[in-house]
Amino acid sequence: MTPEEFYYLDKLNNRTDILLEMRIRSLGWVLDCFRNGKIRKQTITNLIARIQLDELMEYLLEEERYEDCAIVRDILSEVYDGKTQKQIQ
Fold first, then answer.
1. Which pLDDT tens digit goes with each residue over 3-39?
2. What is the pLDDT of residues 33-85, one digit of tens each?
3. Is residue 61 part of a domain?
4. Enclosing domain of residue 23
5. Which of 2, 21, 70, 83 is the residue whose CA sits 20 to 30 A from 89?
6. Which residues contact 84 (CB under 8 A, 6 or more apart)?
7. Is 37 left (phi over 0), alpha (psi -120 to 50) or beta?
8. How many domains in the chain?
9. How far is it, in rounded angstroms, from Cα 7 to Cα 28?
10. The model scores a pTM over 0.90
11. DSSP string for residues in 20-61
């Protein structure tokens, strides 16, 4: 691996973290829009897979980010009818 490849690989990892943070922040906006009737349930379920929310919930629990966990929990309970594919302990 050349130094140039390492540099871009490192930037890619940082972008993954940035994209994850953007997703977490946007879920709050999605939930607010859903509660206000601006986004339909079907639109959310078509764009965000339930398994992705389950994985995100596990990540947030590991990082002890409970305020963000509440947003994901509310989306799962209000939009996906509280049915999760994985049991989170």
1. 776 665 566 566 667 778 888 889 999 999 999 999 9
2. 999 999 999 999 999 999 999 989 998 898 888 999 999 999 999 999 855 44
3. yes
4. 3-78
5. 21
6. 50, 53, 54, 57, 76
7. left
8. 1
9. 33
10. no
11. HHHHHHHHHHHHHHHHTTSS-HHHHHHHS-HHHHHHHHHHHH
Residue 24 included in any domain: yes
* Residue 88 resides in a domain: no
In a domain, 83, yes or no: no
**CA pair distance 89, 73, nearest whole angstrom:** 13
